[in-house]
Structure formats: structure tokens, C-alpha cells
Design a protein that fits this description.
heterodimer, A: about 120 residues, alpha+beta, 5-stranded antiparallel beta sheet, 3 helices, 5 strands, B: about 100 residues, mainly beta, about 50% strand, disordered N terminus
């Protein structure tokens, strides 16, 4: 289980998905590949860009609106994610990476398996 | 598990195609996407999948309507502006400096 999490963290840390992971709690619009859009609060985004939204207003390609409590979007089906205006992108990415590195260092504290040697 | 493969190295020289995109950071670029879409915006960030963050984006969607009787092709384009957009890389076809028209 720990190995799976390490893999997911590493996949995330080496791509821009970390920014989307920093969007948790924000209300955003996700444009899907099938020309529909979903606007809701981001619950979680994983390393594969799978997105879970809550309190969603889903607009299909014809413009028909539907309210959904909970929506799971497969990463492959994402075309765009609108980033809220007030977000500081660099800061969000840096704090997400810091979280990942904190977990990594915590795991190696006390002589556990070192994932990489600390620079400096 | 080798950890060297996860270490990022930043070089100053252009060695691979992605390095050319690095030269366009903070510049306005033109992105051609699948499904007849084009984006023009400022490139803030990108990764190896070509996931990108674009600011001040104008998206152009081009559609072709065929007249039933004359079989004439009518090209229509719809534009919209988005202040900050995350683009998933698998939709990207090409990245270039903005096209100069005329």
C-alpha cells in the first residue's frame, strides 16, 4: 500500500497534476472532452487527473443543466480545468510539492527506507 | 527502486523538443488542439505530457456547416476568453509562437 502511494505521489510530483490537487476545496469549471461542462467544488484530484466534484452544475453539450451531488470524472475525459482568478499558481504548486516532500521525509525518519538522499 | 530517474535536471541548452517549449515560457503562444480548437494565450507552465497552464486565453472552435441544397461549406468559428486555464496534454496537437496574420 505504501509502495502504491509512493508511486502515485511520484507520478503527481513530476507533472502539473499537482496544481489541480491544490485546487481542493475550490469551485471550478471542468470542460470535458465530450463538450459538456461541470462546475462544482473540487473534492479530490488524483495523479491520473481523475476528478471528484461535489455540488455540481452539469451542462451537457446541448446546454441542458443538471444538478448533481457528486460527480467523478475520469482523467482521460478532462479537456480543460478553469483555474479560479484568485489562485496563486506558483504558491499552490510549491505548497503541494512541500506536502509531498514532508510525507517522504516523515517516512524516512527513524532509519526507515530513504527515498532519496537529501541534498544540501 | 532507482531514484535517479525522478531527479529533474535543468539545462541551459536546447536538447530536445520540449526544450523549445521551455523557450516560450511567459510568452504568448499558439496551441492547436484536437477537435478543431485553437488556443492563444500566455504560457505559464507545462510538463512532459504537454499539460499546460495558459493565462489570458482565447479559445477558437471552428465548425463546418454544410448547406443541404448547395453543399456549400460554411466555416464558423466561436471564440471565448478565459483568464486562466489548465489544458490537459492529450488534446494538444502542436505548440507554436503566435501566428502573424497578414
Amino acid at each position: 500500500m505504501a509502495v502504491a502511494n509512493l508511486l502515485l505521489r511520484t507520478i503527481a510530483e513530476n507533472s502539473m497534476v499537482v496544481l489541480l490537487q491544490g485546487l481542493q476545496g475550490e469551485v471550478t469549471t471542468v470542460d470535458l472532452r465530450n463538450e459538456s461542462t461541470a462546475r462544482g467544488r473540487v473534492v479530490n484530484v488524483d495523479a491520473f487527473m481523475n476528478v471528484r466534484l461535489e455540488d455540481v452544475l452539469y451542462r451537457d453539450r446541448r446546454g441542458k443543466l443538471t444538478r448533481l451531488q457528486d460527480l467523478f470524472i475520469t482523467g482521460r475525459n478532462v479537456r480543460y480545468v478553469h483555474i479560479p482568478d484568485h489562485m496563486d499558481i506558483m504558491k499552490t504548486i510549491q505548497s503541494q510539492l512541500a506536502k509531498i516532500h514532508r510525507v517522504r521525509n516523515f517516512a524516512s525518519h527513524g532509519g526507515g527506507r530513504k527515498e532519496y538522499s537529501k541534498k544540501k | 527502486m532507482s531514484t535517479d530517474i525522478f531527479r529533474k535536471t535543468y539545462t541551459n541548452t536546447v536538447e530536445e523538443p520540449l526544450d523549445l517549449i521551455r523557450l516560450s515560457l511567459d510568452e504568448r503562444i499558439y496551441v492547436k488542439m484536437r477537435n478543431d480548437r485553437e488556443l492563444r494565450g500566455r504560457l505559464h507552465a507545462y510538463d512532459q505530457h504537454l499539460n499546460m497552464i495558459l493565462g489570458d486565453v482565447e479559445e477558437t472552435v471552428t465548425t463546418v456547416e454544410i448547406d443541404e441544397e448547395t453543399y456549400e461549406e460554411l466555416y464558423k468559428s466561436t471564440k471565448r476568453n478565459i483568464p486562466m486555464l489548465f489544458v490537459r496534454g492529450d488534446g494538444v496537437v502542436l505548440v507554436a509562437p503566435p501566428l502573424r496574420v497578414g
